[in-house]
Amino acid sequence: MAKKLRVGILFGGRSGEHEVSLLSAASILKAIDRKKYDVVPIGITKEGRWLGAGDAHGLLEGQESAAGRKLRAGDPETTPGAKLLHEGMPTLLAPVPVSASSTGELKRRLSDQASAIDVVFPVLHGTFGEDGTIQGLFELAGIAYVGSGVLGSSAGMDKDVMKRLFAQAGLPIVKHVTVLRSQWEGSPRKTIAQIEAALKYPLFVKPANLGSSVGISKAHNRRELGPALDEAAKYDRKLVVEQGVVGKKSGARELEVAVLGNDEPKASVVGEIIPGKEFYDYEAKYLSEGSVPVIPAKLTGAESKKIREMAIAAFRACDLAGLARVDFLMEPDGKRRIYINEVNTLPGFTQISMYPKLWEASGIKYTDLITRLIELALERQGEKQRNVYSRD
Fold this sequence. Notes:
It contains 13 helices and 14 strands. The chain is an alpha+beta fold.
């Protein structure tokens, strides 16, 4: 019998999307093909402490938001309890970050584990997991991992840099302004004047580096703009302000495409999210009822083809790998112009999240999708091993 691959499922983390990561990890741990893989659960607390199987069990078991509310994942088998980490499972002795001077020791300890772990599936959404930082650690240790590399992950996280890459690739983006937190705090009147000179209300104000709509606000006027900038400034030093795509009676249609692959990526069918609130914020995604996914989206054949092609172009523009969800905005009125909004390099991954649901509608079941992502990680690692790093 062939030896089973050992897959480390890494979840939790220090970002504002910690709870979302727990939900995604619970679903993956439940659905992963145990006939093919030995699974090593690895948890990271909100404080940045790395946990092995026993303690990681408790991390998943709580599944409460910072406000003490149970998250609504919509999956009755994963949201309550999620006791999927069994006592006594093999434990990866992951490093506890201490100081910059310990980089060599940290690399050595991770490298010591490389022979025990064949591939890591980082289910870390947001800062410190989706922004290239953890990917750099895997690169130093020589460990295969699911998803984009350091460059693609960091570019896909930073909405300012991402938009620059989209523009360079000729992809249509909404009008926007990027301001620094120090600029806003030091010259608030000047900053608001700069934004209002470039853009028209309503405006969407976002931290440049975060996901799951954390820290995003919609400002309908100047009175709401200041608090929106304050909210976004809690999460990042760069703030992106976008002009809203709106019609006379409604806001933009929110369309999504799942992309899968490395050098030859494929796009799923196009889906649409009809928010239960004014826009698809964190509350609408995870804590409240009413948001409705429509798969496939009601589009013409030409519109669907164009959006899928744009999704692959965006994937390549940011040098992504493995997986990404690409989000679009469509004008609600007659012109139906389409804008690319952003890429998400480690999207929500519960069985009812849009990325898996889009692939299910395209013919790939959830368990098979997990398997394919692991295969793509190993494929990419093999490609890296062809590189020569010294002339000797």
